[in-house]
Write a structure and sequence with these properties.
The structure is a single chain. The chain is α+β, with helices and mostly antiparallel strands and about 140 residues long. Helix 1 (about 1-45) runs antiparallel to helix 2. The chain has a 6-stranded mixed beta sheet with strand order 2-1-6-5-4-3. The longest helix has about 40 residues, at about 1-45. The protein has one domain (about 1-140): Roll (Nuclear Transport Factor 2, Chain: A). The chain is about 40% helix and about 45% strand. The termini are far apart.
Length: about 140
């Protein structure tokens, strides 16, 4: 009887470890897409933004009483190919990642000398690849 209980406990532990390993693998894949986004900001290279976003993705933000929308391609095209002059003073971090099946959401903080941005990313996994489907953000001057 004790041996059967021990075997059940071992099997449950292995199943739990397999679930954690799958979650870790999925989170790592989501973070790769987010890292491309962060690298676009760090390097000024729009190619990283194109790897981070699905081609049909949009960015959304409020200005005053209106909602603004920009395509991910227009966003990627806005990078000039070189880091910002104050790059050494800029801080970026992935605050959180939450995954459910083929959908994920992430919060990113961009802390720049003049402005603090909070980005909320919606990501989708399509054909085994995670990318940002939409970005909603807020910018607060310091």
């Amino acid at each position: 009887m004790k041996a059967a209980v021990a075997l059940i406990a071992i099997a449950a532990g292995l199943a739990g470890a397999a679930r954690l390993n799958t979650q870790s693998s999925e989170e790592a894949a989501v973070r790769r897409a987010l890292d491309h986004y962060l690298q676009a900001h760090a390097t000024g290279d729009g190619a990283h933004a194109r790897l981070a976003f699905w081609p049909t993705a949009n960015l959304y933000w409020a200005r005053g009483d209106s909602m603004n929308i920009r395509s991910s391609e227009a966003y990627a095209s806005g990078f000039n190919g070189k880091p910002a002059a104050d790059e050494s003073a800029r801080k970026r971090r992935i605050v959180s990642v939450d995954i459910s099946g083929s959908a994920a959401i992430a919060k990113i903080e961009l802390d720049y000398p003049q402005t603090k941005f909070i980005d909320y990313m919606s990501l989708l996994k399509i054909k085994g690849e995670w990318r940002i489907a939409a970005k909603v953000f807020d910018a607060q001057p310091k």
